[in-house]
Design brief:
Length: about 240
Amino acid sequence: MLNANSPIPLYYQLKSYLQDQILQGLLKPGERIPTEKELGERFKISRTTVRQAIGDLINEGLLVRVHGKGTFVAQPRIQQHLGLLTSFTQDMEAHHRTPSSQVLQFEVLPAPPPVARALQIKIGTAVIMLKRVRLADGQPLALEIAYLPEEPFRPLLDLDMSQRSLYATLKAHFGVEPQRALQQMEAVACPAEEARFLQVNKGSPILHIFRTTFDQSGRPFEFVESYYRSDRFFFTIEIWSR
Ligand code: 16G
């Protein structure tokens, strides 16, 4: 029951209650929660108060609203540790999900300025561009556009990258392993084309990530621009005082 005499606002009490139910697994992923009207009646609060609590939980990714159907408990997000240099395949396997990719583009093109800068090559040098939708259990989670120098990686073009890990392939065929990476992230409104591939609404919040990865000898071997669904990922990093 909510406490009308508490200094904690009613919407916040309801939000905490629902949050608790989700975290304890009493409300399960995919389950429909009661309507605003039902919650209002059950807790003797106004629909505006209910709406505020639910709106917050939608914004925080714990609930999803499906137009015409109701509000549902969201699938748990994938926890990703930002301090670990891993591949998409490794991340999904760690979460017991089956990774796959839809290859959208795989070709050689002249390096545009930001790619050339990251890979420390001249603008216009031939690079391989691999554009993939990355899926887990068949659901699109990210869109990645990777650029690698054509030399020595040209033989990659003969391989089917829809069921392969790029990092595992680079290790097996070229002895190249990621040793460190520089990663930058920003939140953006999802552009139309990316939204279509990721099956999200155009303009919904999405993480735009850039990664330059260096091999064992310190040479940059990939520059990747990606869009990660912010409703499917949760990022963690441990930080230390000086
Ligand atoms: C990750 C990397 C990406 C890399 C890919 C290789 C980020 C933002 N990006 O998704 O740079 O190319 O893994 O994955 O984490 P794969 O080995 O499964 O093909």
